[in-house]
Design goal:
The chain is of the alpha/beta class. It is 33% helix and 21% strand. It contains 12 helices and 13 strands. Strands 3-2-1-4-5-7-6 form a 7-stranded mixed beta sheet, sandwiched between helices. Strand 10 (271-280) and strand 11 form a beta hairpin. The longest helix has 29 residues, at 356-384. The radius of gyration is 22 Å and the shape is globular.
Length: 385
């Protein structure tokens, strides 16, 4: 059984993606609501509700195959004014700066001879460009100084679910592990290494570049569920807007978005669109997406961050909030996953998580083959003795 630590665990969506062949031996989150969601779905035997900055390696059992950390993204995006992760020695840290507390625990484990075989970091696209690439370079330096080979891939969840959600995954491998040749290349791939990632890699120190790996991933082949299947005519926990509310939402559209809506009407078939309300030039606007893909889910810190559903059939137009269960499905969570009863809490758990089938794809394509290859080598070595 493969083992893992799950930091910044939220509702345990990395755990859901890794699957039943992996055993969680330690999980941590600071948010009581998320911790309760975790307990409802996975039990509380392995969960620590605590600020990661109060933890040390002594709280973590045994030696895990994997440490997974989806550390806070707020300061790597506009929401945090691109404050970044700061420096390891900062007394007052940004939320994204809790990366350093996580890494301190990793270093303690390494000093004790318990460094995880694999370390995976997940975050928003902004990790590549924050502070002109300095944050990415700092993280790369951490891996290299600790003796880990590492590389990154950008995966958009749209390959797995009908949601546009590009995320950066940095995968580090302990130096003593063998890497099967079919898992890496000597060059970047357009599928997983966009120009921004290539530029970020170029900004690494020479030492970090010597530890860099261009990961090779297969393209996903499974069929993606469509948005019209996920969006229900009889949703739970939300109501359809009144005609006046829908008219007001549509009335906030720019001419470009009104044209999109008109095209949906002319199709004559049931079409699903999604809307975010955004402030443009001091004026709130409804921005419509109608390509069969939902916009990236966000945590509901205010009304503008909630995503709306627009269902169009001919001249009939209906609107409402995206339901919590629909948000969960857009994250690839199974129907059995228990969500908080409160709408905002449930939406927060979903919007602040990692897409489950993306984790599964990484585990199946990279993490598990690396560990299997290492286990096979050890077995052969023992047999030879």
């Amino acid at each position: 059984m493969r083992t893992f630590y799950e930091f910044f665990a939220g509702g345990g969506m990395a755990r859901a993606g890794l699957g039943s062949d992996w055993q969680c031996v330690f999980a941590n989150d600071i948010d009581p609501m998320k911790a309760q969601t975790y307990r409802c779905n996975w039990g509380d035997a392995d969960l620590s509700l605590a600020d990661i900055q109060t933890l040390d390696a002594g709280r973590l059992p045994e030696q895990a195959d994997l440490a997974w950390a989806s550390f806070p993204c707020q300061d790597l995006s506009l929401a945090g004014n691109y404050g970044g992760i700061g420096d390891a020695g900062d007394i007052k840290r940004t939320r994204s700066g809790t990366f350093w507390a996580f890494w301190h625990i990793m270093l303690e484990l390494m000093e004790e001879g318990r460094g995880p075989r694999l370390i995976v970091l997940e975050n928003v696209y902004g990790i590549l460009t924050a502070k002109s690439g300095q944050n990415f370079a700092a993280i790369g330096q951490c891996f290299a100084d600790a003796g880990y080979r590492f590389g990154a891939v950008v995966i958009d969840a749209v390959h797995f679910v009908p949601q546009s959600r590009p995320r950066v995954f940095i995968i580090g491998v302990r130096q003593d592990l063998d890497l099967p040749n079919n898992l890496h290349d000597s060059f970047s791939s357009k599928d997983w290494h966009p120009n921004s990632l290539v530029a970020a890699q170029q900004g690494l120190s020479l030492h970090a570049k010597r530890h860099w790996i261009w990961w090779r991933l297969p393209r996903p082949t499974s069929k993606v569920a469509t948005l019209d299947v996920i969006v229900s005519d009889n949703p739970e926990g939300v109501r359809w807007h009144t005609e006046a509310e829908t008219k007001r939402l549509v009335g906030m559209m720019s001419p470009l978005n009104v044209a999109k809506l008109d095209a949906m009407k002319k199709s004559g078939r049931r079409m699903i669109g999604t809307i975010y309300r955004r402030t443009r030039l001091g004026e709130q606007r409804s921005e419509l997406r109608c390509d069969g893909v939902a916009g990236c889910l966000r945590t509901p810190s205010g009304g503008s961050s909630r995503q709306f559903v627009l269902v169009v059939k001919g001249s009939a137009v209906r609107s409402r909030l995206l339901s919590a269960r629909e948000a969960a499905k857009l994250m690839g969570l199974p129907d059995w996953f228990t969500l908080p009863e409160n709408y905002n809490d449930a939406y927060h758990v979903a919007g602040d998580g990692v897409v489950v089938p993306v984790v599964r794809h990484l585990a199946m394509s990279l993490l598990e083959p690396i560990l299997i290859g290492t286990s096979n080598k050890l077995e052969h070595a023992h047999a030879a003795e």
